[in-house]
Amino acid sequence: MNFLDGSLFPENQDKLVITAAPYGPEWFPSDYPEDIAVTMDEQIQKAVDCYEAGASVLHLHVRELDGKGSKRLSKFNELIAGVRKAVPDMIIQVGGSISFAPPEDGAAAKWLHDDTRHMLADLDPKPDQVTVTVNTTQMNVIEQMDVRDYAGTSMGGETYEAYREMIVPSGPGFIEEHVKRLSAAGIQSAFQFYNINSYESVERLIRRGVYKGPLVCNWVAIGGGMDQPHIYSMANFLRAVPDGTMLTVESTMLNTLPINMMGMAMGLHVRCGIEDNIWSQDRSAKVTTVEQIQQLVRIAKEFGRPVANGKEAREILKIGVFYDTVEETLAANGFAPNPKGGQQGFLRK
């Protein structure tokens, strides 16, 4: 991205798109009963509360009545339908891991087989987005946490080793097939970029014509095999991506708010919720997803940056937009065209 004179002025930035991640599949309900919804009605109401607080994108996971993360696509269909009816303008983004929670057999934090993950393209009603992990990598969500973040919780006990040793399986074959199926269903791929390497893999997908849509993504700065949550990693990543990128920043625990504030100042978009953080900045109390959204709305007001509603966010994120050709996709996203003949080309316009 290029940051020219005036790029920090709010009038030269898009309205702020806030993604809420309120379902926190890595936690047990006993970890935070005040803010972990279990029944279907409670989970639908959680989406309503987040939208009314100022979030326009819902990062969606589902729980069973026993509080465990659901692997049943029928439960996803049920929650999506309920959210659609309750808050029709909210953008629904299904978390592509779908099994990022301890199952009943105790094999915690195991991702499902590729064939099952591909079935997210068949959800009915279909979501607006599905998150797409890019390249197999370590996802040690514990590494950037302080022991005080998880002490006394399930993550500090029975699931600690599972989350520390977790691997994201996402090889080239899975990514290509997944993106093709999502696009064919009219669902936007919301790419999860852990570093420049994962971004570059998607650029190559675009240049080969595998993906022909807007570059909508998260920069996931949680450490543990992914980028580090500090300004140098962020700046290095931003130098690589083109100007047409719709980029949301994401971090974990007490890094979440500072990373969001940096992203907000630079015209990027933000994510919050108990999937990312459950603590106030001094760890004096747990904070709900709604309270985190309200905090970002207040800060955005101080920055002078308006918060996007659902309809505005759909335009900013280009929900439902796909392109006909490789060259159209490259141009729309701010990439240089593919080289022709002996031309070596260049990375950015």
| Helicity level | 25-40%
Shape: globular
Assign the CATH topology: TIM Barrel
**Beta-strand percentage?**
5-15%
Low-confidence stretches: 100-104
- The total count of strands amounts to 10
Name given to the CATH homologous superfamily: Aldolase class I
What does this structure look like?
InterPro entries: Aldolase_TIM, BKACE. One of its GO terms (molecular function) is metal ion binding. It holds the Pfam family BKACE. The structure is a single chain. The protein is of the alpha/beta class. The chain has a single domain, classed as Aldolase class I (TIM Barrel, Alpha-Beta Barrel). Helices cover 34% and strands 11% of the residues. It has twelve helices and ten strands. It has an eight-stranded parallel β-barrel with strand order 1-2-3-4-7-8-9-10, surrounded by seven helices. Strands 5-6 form a two-stranded antiparallel ribbon. Helix 9 (256-265) links the parallel strand 9 (246-250) and strand 10. It is globular and about 60 Å long.
Task: Label this structure with key terms.
single chain; 349 residues; alpha/beta; TIM Barrel; eight-stranded parallel β-barrel; two-stranded antiparallel sheet; 12 helices; globular; transferase; Aldolase_TIM; metal ion binding; BKACE; metal-binding
Secondary structure blueprint with pairings:
Blueprint: E1 18-20, H1 40-53, E2 57-60, H2 73-86, E3 91-94, H3 114-118, E4 129-133, E5 137-138, H4 147-150, H5 160-164, E6 167-168, H6 172-184, E7 188-193, H7 196-207, E8 216-220, H8 231-240, E9 246-250, H9 256-265, E10 269-272, H10 289-303, H11 310-317, H12 326-333
Helix pairs in contact: 1-2, 9-10
InterPro entries: Aldolase_TIM, BKACE
GO molecular function, one term: metal ion binding
Cofactor: Zn(2+)
